[in-house]
Amino acid sequence: MSRLAAAAAGALLVILAVVGSAAAKTTIEPCSTADSCAALLGYSLYADMKVSEVAALFGADPAALLAANALDFASPGAANRILPAGLLLRVPTRCACADGVRKSVSVRYAARPADTLATVADVVFAGLASADQIRNANGLAEADPDALLDAGQILVVPFPCVCLNSTDNNLPAVYLSYVVRVGDTVESIAASHATTVTDLSNVNAMGSPIVAPGDILAIPLSACASTFPNFASDYGLLVANGTYALTAGNCVECSCGPGDLNLYCTPASLGTSCSSMQCSNSSLMLGNMTSQPTSGGCGVSSCSYAGFINGSIATSLSSGLQPTCPGPHQFPPLMEPSTAAIHGSYLAPSPSPGPGEAGGAVPGSSDSGASSHSLAGSLSPSVHRLHQMILILSLVFYLHM
């Protein structure tokens, strides 16, 4: 073996030791009920991937994935757009209660040749789950995390998430599970997500504002809440400020911001078979509004979305007097997915709009332990850059044997 190969092999062992020995921390929310909430997973692409590939990895709808990131979900061929490695995406998920804690347990992953529990956790899912967590979720307590998995083996992959009553400081919020990356600080994370160090510290029960790569933080994002009845299939819909969500079989698109935190829903162009969206006893369609100046102000009538109930789109007609007539509604800007290499998120920090007036409060969780959460240790995931270094060193090693 050449000196170069020996040095590479030694460096490889050092890197693996560092990755495997460090302890990552994750915010955990205890729970005791069977309810769930809307949540987001912060996923860093480990390679250039099509939108449809990322969506399939998480069992998500490609259009819903794009909408959650304010990317144009209606453009032709959007699902086949290639997203660059290193991009941070927000993946919509349901945060359920399993084994007494909040987690997302809807993802099933089919192992590929050369996969191990460690690479599935650290590389494929970019540290959102640890090898230990995947091992325990699949009853593989004795499995070596570095042993090859059988190709095609189906794994349940649990991801950390929190609900915290879907509020932050008594305002509607959706929580993003974010894996701390190299170079991150609590200050930089707070600034890039339009929150504060104090808020992040409180939400994650941090004794001091210090994080390490691999830690998973719960980040509160201001959101627009829905007030649909609890028998609606999209009950509890939350949309992060500056983004969109699709519902009612992709027949309805709902947006939040940028001017306020009132949920605003209109017909979407993606649904193939949609029920009527006209408000009863009115000529107004979903999302339409009429205004008429009067001596006492402005008479306003609007047709709003009221949930997806028994396979049909429910609408609600409201009329009232406002001080002034409202102007045209402002929508969050939609961007085209880029194909250039980018290490960050498409979403810039959203402005802080005024509080919602008609959105209402998010239906509260009945968890007895919803206010009790902490940072719990688990096996640390490696970051993408370390994985790349390992691959390079491995290649050097084999080339010089």
Automatic annotation (TrEMBL):
Domain LysM per the UniProt entry, residue ranges: 176-219
Spans annotated as Disordered: 345-377
Database matches in SUPFAM superfamilies: LysM domain
GO molecular function terms listed in the Swiss-Prot or TrEMBL record: peptidoglycan binding
GO BP of this protein: immune response
Classification via CDD domains: LysM
Gene Ontology CC entries for this record: plasma membrane
Keyword Signal: yes
Signal peptide bounds: 1-24
Assigned keywords, A-Z: Signal
Keyword Signal attributed: yes
Amino acid composition bias (Low complexity), ranges on this chain: 363-377
PANTHER family, sorted: LYSM DOMAIN-CONTAINING GPI-ANCHORED PROTEIN 1, LYSM DOMAIN-CONTAINING GPI-ANCHORED PROTEIN 2
Protein name as catalogued: LysM domain-containing protein
Organism: Hordeum vulgare subsp. vulgare (Domesticated barley)
Designated gene of the protein: LOC123410788
